[in-house]
Amino acid sequence: MMFDFLKRLTDIIGSLVGLIILSPLLILVAIAIKLDSPGPVMADTPMRAGKNGKLFRIYKFRSMVQNAHEMLEKNPKLLEQYKKNSYKIVNDPRVTRVGKFIRKYSIDEFPQFFNILIGEMSLVGPRAYYPYELEEQQSHYPQSRQYVKVILSGKPGLTGVWQVTGRSEINFDKRVIMDAGYVKRRSILYDYWLMLKTIPAVVSGKGAV
């Protein structure tokens, strides 16, 4: 269909242009991460659920200390806050100094241009959810199952509706309604509008944790 063709063409061109323009920044961030704390430049995050539920590894700059996920699992209080707050932790003690800055302005997400280029993600789409997040939250919000099914019919995006309207301030039950609504809409002009809205949302840093 025309929408799918234009969306993929936009993804290829947009990701290539983004990687070329941002390459100096990506190099500087990589150096800053290595100087700030021991560990790899890229985050070792759990697999995400992509289109049709297919698992893939998302590319992100490391914004936390090494073994952050192991630390979370071994800290009951931190784990409780993580699940209670829609899988986010305010003032997360695992976040590094450089990590706080790149998370606030979503710079840690820029390596996802590689995911977009190879077709695992799109410039605009639903959040790339963790499989366990979907399972646990659907049990907590049974009404969300219908929306999750719609969400998994599309590719996750670097940006999307919830990212430009509150980011981490929006809970799962409201987030999936937004994401499902986006997938059903299928409008390339709406994609372009959301990309434009992303710029002030990122610059302001509002809703980031």
UniProtKB/TrEMBL annotation:
> In this protein, which residues make up the domain named Bacterial sugar transferase?
7-203
Q: Which domain of life is it from?
A: Bacteria
Q: Does the keyword Transmembrane helix apply?
A: yes
Transmembrane annotation, as ranges: 12-33
> Which GO terms of the molecular function aspect are on file?
phosphotransferase activity, for other substituted phosphate groups
Has the keyword Aminoacyl-tRNA synthetase been applied to this entry? no
* A Pfam family of this chain: Bac_transf
Keywords carried by this UniProt record = Membrane, Transmembrane, Transmembrane helix
Which family is annotated?
Belongs to the bacterial sugar transferase family.
Entry's PANTHER family? COLANIC BIOSYNTHESIS UDP-GLUCOSE LIPID CARRIER TRANSFERASE (PTHR30576), SLL5057 PROTEIN (PTHR30576:SF10)
Know the name of this protein? Bacterial sugar transferase domain-containing protein
Q: Which organism is it from?
A: Candidatus Daviesbacteria bacterium RIFCSPHIGHO2_01_FULL_41_23
